[in-house]
Amino acid sequence: MNDAPAEPRPALRDDRSEPGTARPGAAGRTSAGPRRSKASADAILDAAQDLLAEAGYAGFSIEQVAKRAGAGKPTIYRWWNGKAALLLDVYARQKLVLTDDDTGTLEGDLASMLCSVSRFWRETPAGDIFRSIIAEAQSEPSALEALRSFLGERRHHVAAVFERARARGELDEGFDLDTTLDIVSGFLWARLLVRRLDDDLEGFNSFARQIARGVTRR
Amino acid sequence: MNDAPAEPRPALRDDRSEPGTARPGAAGRTSAGPRRSKASADAILDAAQDLLAEAGYAGFSIEQVAKRAGAGKPTIYRWWNGKAALLLDVYARQKLVLTDDDTGTLEGDLASMLCSVSRFWRETPAGDIFRSIIAEAQSEPSALEALRSFLGERRHHVAAVFERARARGELDEGFDLDTTLDIVSGFLWARLLVRRLDDDLEGFNSFARQIARGVTRR
Amino acid sequence: MNDAPAEPRPALRDDRSEPGTARPGAAGRTSAGPRRSKASADAILDAAQDLLAEAGYAGFSIEQVAKRAGAGKPTIYRWWNGKAALLLDVYARQKLVLTDDDTGTLEGDLASMLCSVSRFWRETPAGDIFRSIIAEAQSEPSALEALRSFLGERRHHVAAVFERARARGELDEGFDLDTTLDIVSGFLWARLLVRRLDDDLEGFNSFARQIARGVTRR
Amino acid sequence: MNDAPAEPRPALRDDRSEPGTARPGAAGRTSAGPRRSKASADAILDAAQDLLAEAGYAGFSIEQVAKRAGAGKPTIYRWWNGKAALLLDVYARQKLVLTDDDTGTLEGDLASMLCSVSRFWRETPAGDIFRSIIAEAQSEPSALEALRSFLGERRHHVAAVFERARARGELDEGFDLDTTLDIVSGFLWARLLVRRLDDDLEGFNSFARQIARGVTRR
DNA sequence: GGATAACCGAGACGGTACGTCTTGTCTTAAA
DNA sequence: TTTAAGACAAGACGTACCGTCTCGGTTATCC
């Protein structure tokens, strides 16, 4: 998903040949050239991710990212229009690993998915990053926009679970996919936002049972 | 509702006798005494609320609140330990008016409650304030703590709906109140955070139907 | 000298009878009555002097003096109109101990006096206090006024040395006392202000010899 | 005179090429680059000088200087480490115009110099600035250090007068230049600090006569 | 001998300034 | 022409004092 970072510029060839000689500068990275430097972009995203992991959203500033990446602030602002865009790209880099196993029932699949997402957010930087994006979206219109479109993209992971259920004939004829997806993501967001991402098996099972009961045919 | 605002001091008598003579100062507000000045506190909370309404969370700063309230910054920091505490008090002042009418069925009650909360957040400053608190909680531990305890307090409003249903004998014996409340509030939070608080009757009904089906006995 | 502190009030009897019962307050000092409390005044002056000794002029604030004295700020402002007045009173409390011995010659007396004043300023808080007063006088008109009148009072100590010389017949008939006193105090002030109060015997002797040669008859 | 202002950075080329286009900002000043902006430094020093002239040392604050200069506070703190450093640079900018005319005698030269310095301090901002520096030095160690080294630099102006006298053969063989310079500057400082800089010809002549008598050979 | 008036401590108040931090724009020099 | 570097204006941050004002409480004096 979204493996092309949000570029305000048309589309540059990002791959640049390796530098011939090392600079005396911070990391061996050669500075500049007429194309966008993939090395720089990577360094910036790495720095952003690390910083977020270490200092949290509170300590996350463009200033610090630039310093840590050995990049100039204008370089960041040239390619991302603010914190939010940067955060989104960082989130997009996270490899979403969900153990989307087919347990045979909607209820089982749902519980499994909750566990999976919960673990993903808990054990990778993704959770903190996503929290930050939501927070940023509350004051930054562009972040809100990004968050919304982002939502649509991630939707299909959960949707797949219900598609399987539909294929099995489990679902009621009046099943409303959109609302159901909102329920699932809302439930997860709330846990994320109050930092209650523990592996609450009982709660997840309870959730899954209830949702499954609500949407399956009798 | 949170009728004890987050006061760092034990409990002061906030009511002060009427000022004898007017100060030459800005407003007619009399300045100071060894007790907390209710007038100041009110002016600050009013200013905070207005500022949030006008400039949003992005433009909300202690500096501006102080200026607008005609108060000194130290006065704010004396009684609230940061943005979050101030926001919480502002939220606590909002009169939660929910048309909690008994429609006779759980489904009806649920749909009604969603409408009611949605309208409350949409048509009063409360929604924006609450969004701000959630955002603040992502970087400020104290705000997170406040948000959590806050959650517990508001919980009973939704719980009441389910208690009525239980009294009617609608509920399944395995009904899990906590999880269900999390579902409801999660659904509402998500709508609030992506600013999709429109009066989505169809969606609310769909949600209510599904939840009701999931928890009622067959 | 100046043993009546700069009182803005007409003239109260400062001595108060001993309190009958101790207050639960800080130091057992009883609080108030319709007369000025000598105990409070002393506590304030003590605190001011100690604070100046410990934290220097930079750390000297009415706030701290009040806290340390266990006094209310208004009590300080009631009896002194600012830092400067307080400092002056503190300086006035310093017992000026000058070994004003008659060496038989103007030159000897002068050198002796320089040593004496220098040691006084160096070994008691007086030097730091006086420095503070001069500093304060640069921004506070009232302090300037006080400094000027103060100057007049202290003048006679040095004048006495020259009076003795005149009595001995050492002085030239065109001797200008005022200018000479300005020279002596200026010399000492400059040393004080750049904190070069070491016991510079050679310098003092050189000064004394030169001044004496300048004013004695040939 | 102190032509190298107290720069914390080694030595930057302060001159920058002319701006191509005007900024929308306050004045027509173009904004910055990786070198120190001379325009900003000048604006800050101008503002500091004007502010000191208008509001005096009491009203002199970094805050006000920044506002008046249209500069950011961090810009000031980047190049000067506090009030004192700024004041010193402002003083260093004052063109010391002393009518150092050779009157033929030490006494005449001295009187002339006193008049000259007195007028300089009285009729230019220099006097007020210098008073402020002395005051600042009483609470700020760095200012004290600066004041001391400053002293050394300015010393030779007065020294020149005595050098001329020595060349004329006026001086006694035991003449002590250091002490004498301390006397002269002490006399002037004291007058400055109690704001008695009037053109006291009589006093100056008296001073000059006495000093001259003290150091000339018989 | 009870009322009164001035003192006292405490500390909240509106302000101003402090020195630091971050933001987003701009300029330079190197590559 | 992009880059790293970093100066810049702007302004918020949270803290320290300023000098004023109110509070209750205490106590010496005067009716």
Automatic annotation (TrEMBL), chains A, B, C, D:
Gene3D superfamilies per the UniProt record, alphabetical: Homeodomain-like, Tetracycline Repressor, domain 2
PANTHER family found in the cross-reference section: HTH-TYPE TRANSCRIPTIONAL REGULATOR RUTR, TETR-FAMILY TRANSCRIPTIONAL REGULATOR
Chain positions covered by the region annotation Disordered: 1-40
Keyword DNA-binding included in the entry's annotation: yes
DNA-binding region in chain numbering: 61-80
InterPro entries xrefs: Homeodomain-like_sf, HTH-type_TetR-like_transc_reg, HTH_TetR, Tet_transcr_reg_TetR-rel_C_sf, TetR_C
Pfam family name, one: TetR_C_11
GO molecular function terms noted in the UniProt entry: DNA-binding transcription factor activity; transcription cis-regulatory region binding
Domain HTH tetR-type: 38-98
Cross-referenced SUPFAM superfamilies: Homeodomain-like, Tetracyclin repressor-like, C-terminal domain
Protein name per Swiss-Prot or TrEMBL: TetR family transcriptional regulator
Taxonomic classification: Bacteria, Pseudomonadati, Pseudomonadota, Alphaproteobacteria, Hyphomicrobiales
Keywords: DNA-binding, Transcription, Transcription regulation
PROSITE patterns reported for this sequence: HTH_TETR_2
Keyword Coiled coil attached: no
